[in-house]
Amino acid sequence: MRPIGLTSVTFRELTAPEIIALAAQTGCAGIEWGSDVHVPTGQLDCAEQIKAQCRQHQLEVFSYGSYYKLNQGLKPEVDFQAYLDSAVKLGAPLIRIWAGRTASAQADADFFERAVAETQQCCDLAAQAGIEVAFEYHRKSLTDNSVSAVRLLNAVNRKNCRTYWQPNPEKNAEENLQELTDILPWLARVHVFSWNNDNSRLPLADQEKAWKRWLKIIPESVPLILEFVKDDQPAQFQRDVQALRSWCNTTQK
Are 11 and 227 a contacting pair, CB within 8 Å? Predict the structure, then answer.
């Protein structure tokens, strides 16, 4: 059974208990908790409480979705350590970080090398706690395409360094499939959503054909984390979970 869940930033207006209740009601396996609203970095008591609440509802903590961004003048031994401390208290096996906020095409050699060195520091700190680090796979970053992402992952060269994947709305289904194929050896999590190329949100079912193609090559152990549903409505989330679960049942390997 593929693990399906949600990322808490999908519903920033809901409280953590409300998100847990929604996940439990829809039969989700787990939650990715964001560091901006629901599990603020450094609030360790909050992280422990949410960990306990998830356990009470038999929900996994898929990851700690941080907003730590490379090449922003941060110090891993101070700033990333704060995220790491929260992740440990939360019981998260993985911390998501951002590969800067500069498009790969605009990043020079110095930018790239600094990003590599900083990631290595983060990974080495996380390894001491038995935690993985994974990049957000996002536009306007060093992981805005698979060529740049693979180059970065190879340069970092840490066993606990991986990446997320999500479709790029500016690319077609075939192009997204190729990108997913390229980063499969490092794939840790998938953000699931349905957007038009103008970034407007759609019901997940509107992109059924594309998602079924992508699901065929995504390993069954990789959590599928629903994100940013149409109109930010819990009812739409419920429909999207149902659609995703039905596709998973038909694409089992």
Answer: no
